[in-house]
Design a protein that fits this description.
The protein is an alpha/beta fold. It has four helices and five strands; from the N terminus they run ββαβααβαβ.
């Protein structure tokens, strides 16, 4: 998990946080420069997190395969675990934690919001596909 924050952050659970996830198609997500993200971190005291969850390509082919087909629930479990850890470590609290994802990440955020609505204050689903059970490969 990549956790980005300003070095003046207080670990009191009162910070706004955005948790991003994708977890599919063997694609590795890594931090990159973003002006809007920098503004969120610097001027709003926010925390931006990229979850390295099974299904993605962050740790090789086996990692990717552990989030495919009948193991898709692993992807959702990993993302939920990332959110729980952010709360446990007092980066944020549920009402200040937003999650977002696009495409496969849209599916991810929608499912996690349904499975654990108590864990998130906001959910942004970008172009999620929701008929994935009919796909041959995901």
């Amino acid at each position: 998990m990549f956790v980005l924050y300003n070095n003046s952050l207080s670990f009191d659970g009162n910070n706004g946080a955005i948790l991003y996830g994708y977890g599919g198609y063997n694609i590795a997500r890594q931090p990159y420069f973003s002006v809007s993200r920098l503004l969120f971190l610097k001027h709003f005291g926010g925390v931006y997190v990229i979850a390295n969850i099974r299904g993605g390509g962050e740790y090789g082919e086996k990692w990717h395969e552990e989030g495919m087909r009948d193991k898709k629930q692993n992807v959702f479990d990993d993302f939920i675990y990332a959110a729980e850890e952010l709360i446990k470590l007092k980066y944020t609290k549920p009402e200040k934690l937003a999650i977002h994802g696009h495409s496969n990440g849209g599916l991810l955020t929608a499912v996690c919001a349904q499975q654990r609505p108590d864990l998130f204050g906001a959910v942004v689903v970008g172009v999620g596909y929701f008929q994935y059970l009919f796909l041959k490969v995901f």
